[in-house]
Amino acid sequence: MSSENNYDWLIATLDGTEILKKSGEDSGSYEYTFTTNGTHTIVVKYTKNDNGNSGNDYGKIYNIKLDGYIIGDANDDSVVDIADVTEIVNAILDSNTGTTTQQDTK
Fold first, then answer.
1. In whole angstroms, how far apart are CA 65 and each of 16, 53, 62, 93, 95?
2. Between the N and C ends of the chain, which has fewer C-beta atoms within 10 Å?
């Protein structure tokens, strides 16, 4: 990132809470560990004031990595298989009928 120190900012928020704020000449990595499961919203913005210019006026984020998330693992058992398909189909059917399904725990 390259900006006017303490005046122009690269800011990241998670679900409305600021998790990163950088200014000036800066590089490196940042790691954040989610403390709750579910859907989250990450917003990244660059803000610039009108009082002066310093640096190249840019900030960038790249190589975002989500560890531990497996696409298609609907039942969170770390395996994508027919049980996930069943979970998804049941969720769709339940949302269409307004009923809920209980699973047998044998």
1. 20, 33, 9, 33, 31
2. C
What digits encode the pLDDT tens for the residues 25-43?
888 788 887 777 777 888 9
Rounded CA gap, 1 and 100, in Å? 49
Rounded-to-integer distance, Cα 13 and Cα 15, Å = 6
Q: What is the C-alpha separation between 72 and 89, in angstroms, rounded?
A: 12
Instruction: Give the long-range contacts of residues 35-42, CB within 8 A, separation 24 or more.
Output: 40/14, 40/15, 41/14, 41/15, 41/16, 42/12, 42/13, 42/14
- CA dihedral (65, 66, 72, 77) positive or negative: positive
Q: What is the pTM of this model?
A: 0.56
| 3 state DSSP class of 18 | strand
Helix, strand or coil, per DSSP, at residue 97: helix
Report the chain's C-alpha Rg in angstroms: 21
E strand or H helix at 87: helix 82-97
